[in-house]
Amino acid sequence: MRHFQKKGYIALITAIILTAIVLAVAVSLSSTTFLARFDSVGVELKDMSRFIAKGCLEYARFNLASSSGWAGNVTTTINGYSCYVYAPQGVGTTTVIQSTATINNRTTNLKMTVATSTLKVIFLEELSSF
Fold first, then answer.
1. How far is CA 126 from CA 16, 49, 51, in A?
2. What's the whole-model pTM score?
């Protein structure tokens, strides 16, 4: 009878070890999914800051169309989020407009080059800083 008791003990230990391994894999996969959620929130916040900064650039284009002497250097609010428009810089036949928006430490700095006479967008780029 002793021989059968030892086989039962080995089966029990094997079952416990396999359960621990399966549990560790399950916890690992669930925490990876949980942490990936925070990364997707960061991407959404970055997109939102980009849209707000672009809205600021459009605000600046509108003000330049209304008054060619518009000085910029203003903070404006779009949908409850603020952004800053730097002073437009005329360079020959083009004007450079820069804006920045930050939402929960996600910052977007945009630089738009427009034709001075028509305010048509020539180039738009995101910069790491100004």
1. 55, 12, 12
2. 0.69
**What DSSP character marks residue 25?**
H
CB atoms within 10 A of CB 124: 13
Q: Which residues on neighbouring strands pair with residue 84, listed in sequence order?
A: 75, 100
Rounded to 5°, the CA angle 11-16-21 comes to 125
**Exposure string for 11-27, b = 16+ CB within 10 A, e = fewer:** eeeeeeeeeeeeeeeee
Distance CA 7, CA 85 (A): 77
Give the distance between the most distant pair of CA atoms in the chain. Answer: 101
DSSP-assigned beta bridge partners for residue 112: 97, 124
Mean pLDDT, all residues of the chain: 88
**Distance in angstroms (rounded) separating the CA atoms of residues 77 and 79:** 7
pLDDT value at residue 114: 95
